[in-house]
Design brief:
Its cofactor is FMN. By secondary structure, the protein is of the alpha+beta class. It is built from nine helices and four strands. The protein has a four-stranded antiparallel beta sheet with strand order 1-2-4-3, sandwiched between helices.
Length: 222
């Protein structure tokens, strides 16, 4: 594929992608679903932490319970081919196992190398981000990282002609409780960050894609 054809394919995908709320009854092929999930799995994260999980929700009883507390997912829960939960870790402190394990995964060995990197992350969390002692700030940090994976999943889907809709319109505490009651998450260690529906649109959108003028959002600081 030439650079020109790749550029055109990307531009077409950007224009194709829209927030679809009602889907038809066609199911996404398994290989396409796995490709979309690979886009999440292989996404970058802050300090390589990967403090996330991506759960394909198939349990209809759980979907029905979530529907009761998710005003922004009513039609998607009913009609989407697949529904994905993006879950983020809580309390990912510099002195916790998650950061240590992420360093070991990347080949940082026990000893001075590991200790010096953890000291760097301690300064990052305490001084740069001022979040080390705030459970809420720590969760916000890991939750917003899931949006990198969310964007990658949506763009991968668009590139292969699959529609999607990111979802934040729900009661977070109640969804956490529902998922914990069904053994899907450990509420003490993780929480829902967002949701994603996937499928094929029932109809084309009524309105064309609208964005602010490019020059309003993109600039060069010289």
């Amino acid at each position: 594929m030439t650079k020109e054809s790749m550029t055109q394919k990307l531009q077409d995908a950007f224009k194709f992608r829209t927030a679809v709320r009602v889907y038809n009854d066609h199911k996404i092929p398994e290989e396409d679903l796995q490709l979309i999930l690979d886009a999440a799995w292989l996404s970058p994260s802050s300090v390589g932490l990967e403090a996330w999980r991506f759960i394909v929700l198939e349990n209809e009883a759980v979907k029905n319970e979530i529907k009761e507390v998710a005003w922004g997912a009513q039609y998607q829960l009913e009609t989407a081919s697949h529904f994905i939960l993006l879950v983020a870790e809580k309390n990912a402190r510099y002195d916790g196992l998650s950061i240590k394990n992420s360093l070991l995964r990347r080949g940082i060995e026990e000893g001075k190398g590991l200790d010096s990197r953890i000291k760097l992350y301690e300064s990052f969390q305490k001084n740069d981000m001022e979040m080390a002692d705030s459970p809420r700030a720590l969760f916000d940090w890991t939750a917003k990282q899931t949006y990198i994976a969310l964007g990658n999943m949506m763009m991968t889907a668009a590139l292969i002609g699959i529609d999607s809709c990111p979802i934040e319109g729900f009661d977070y505490a109640k969804v956490d409780t529902i998922l914990a009651n069904h053994g899907i998450i450990n509420k003490d260690k993780e929480g829902i960050a967002s949701m994603l529906s996937l499928g094929y649109r029932l109809r084309d959108p009524k309105h064309a894609q609208v964005r602010k003028p490019r020059e309003e959002v993109i600039s060069v600081a010289k």
